[in-house]
Structures are given as C-alpha cells and as structure tokens.
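lol so apparently i was supposed to do this last week
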Amino acid sequence: MKTILWATLSANGNYAQSSPENPPKKEALDDFAKHAEAAGNFIVGRRTFEGMAASGGGGGGPFADLDIVVVSKSVDALPGATIARSPQEALNYLQRKGHQTAIVAAGADLHNAFLSQGLVNELIFNVAPVLEGKGLHLTIDANDYKFKDVRLLDTNLLGGGVVQLHYAVNR
Ligand SMILES: NC(=O)c1ccc[n+]([C@@H]2O[C@H](COP(=O)([O-])OP(=O)(O)OC[C@H]3O[C@@H](n4cnc5c(N)ncnc54)[C@H](OP(=O)(O)O)[C@@H]3O)[C@@H](O)[C@H]2O)c1
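anyway here it is w/ NAP bound
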C-alpha cells in the first residue's frame, strides 16, 4: 500500500495553520477532498479530527463514505471514525480493508510521527499564498539535523495562487 502525506504549507515554508481570520484556501481543501475520495480514506491526528468535526467535516458530511482513521492514545471511540493507537496501526487497518493508497491528512504531530518513522512514500505539498510568523514545521527528526532526498514527480497550479508540489520519498 502506498502512503501519501498531504499538507498545506505557507509560502515561507511553515506547516500552515488556519484560523477564522486566516481560513484554509478553498483550492487546497478541494484538492484534499479529491485525494481522499480517490483513495477512499484518510488518516488524521485526534486534534485535527476534533477540529474537523466541530466545523462539520469529521466523520459525517462530505466524508461519510470514506474510511477515516484517527490516531490517538487517549480516546477509544469517535463518531464516524476508526481509532488506531499508532501510525503503523492505522496503515495496517487500511491495508486489511484492501485500500491501495492511504492519505495522511494532518496535523503536525501526526505528520511528524509518520515522517520520523519512515512510513511515507509520497508527499503532496500545497503551497498557499500566505506568510506566517512563528509556527509549525514538518520534520523527519525534531532533535537532530538530518536530510532525506525527495524526487519531484509533478507540479500543478491549483488556482487562487496555490502551487502543488508532488514528491516521491526515497525510503
Ligand atoms: N497544513 C495543513 O495541511 C493542516 C491541515 C489540518 C490542520 N492543520 C493544523 O494542524 C494543527 C493541528 O495539529 P496538531 O499537531 O496540533 O494535532 P494532530 O497531529 O492533529 O493531533 C495530535 C494528536 O494525535 C495523536 N497522535 C499524534 N501522533 C501520534 C502517535 N505517534 N501515536 C499515537 N497518537 C498520536 C495524539 O492524540 P491523543 O492526545 O488523543 O493521544 C495527539 O495528541 C492545527 O494548528 C491546524 O491548523 C494544518
């Protein structure tokens, strides 16, 4: 099974955050829905899922037909989602269900767990036309300088000034 990490970045390279004053770009959200629907699933961290649920996009609404896996050690059940205790457990579940591709959808903590554990095959970064101050970062190791080559597969202009970068990760 192929694992794709999907994320929006700010133009200055942060892992983009959103707020009522700085909502996610529609073009980036539409792109997320396209990839999640094509894969039939997505994996999220517990905090991101709770944020999605609060805005009507959790385990129901537009994603009601998808296999949603929430990674959490602290909760046992959430409506419309399957709980996994670790990134690997989330992948094992989707593999058992016969999925060919897993979409890892957010947030920073969970993305960094997948990246540091070497569980990602491809990256989709949508670079939004916004600059942020102090913020979140995606990293393969939070404590040490390391690097890993990635191979550019494709670029796309999604509209609204959002640029998509699609990479393969050498594992
Ligand atoms: N740029 C984007 O594409 C994008 C998209 C959506 C959200 N966001 C931003 O992301 C931020 C939210 O992300 P976040 O980092 O705060 O939270 P998160 O990654 O969504 O959720 C964190 C929680 O997930 C669980 N978790 C994470 N790693 C785990 C592991 N290795 N094993 C078991 N459980 C694990 C833990 O849940 P428990 O505490 O329950 O154990 C942890 O508290 C917000 O600022 C939001 O704006 C950005």
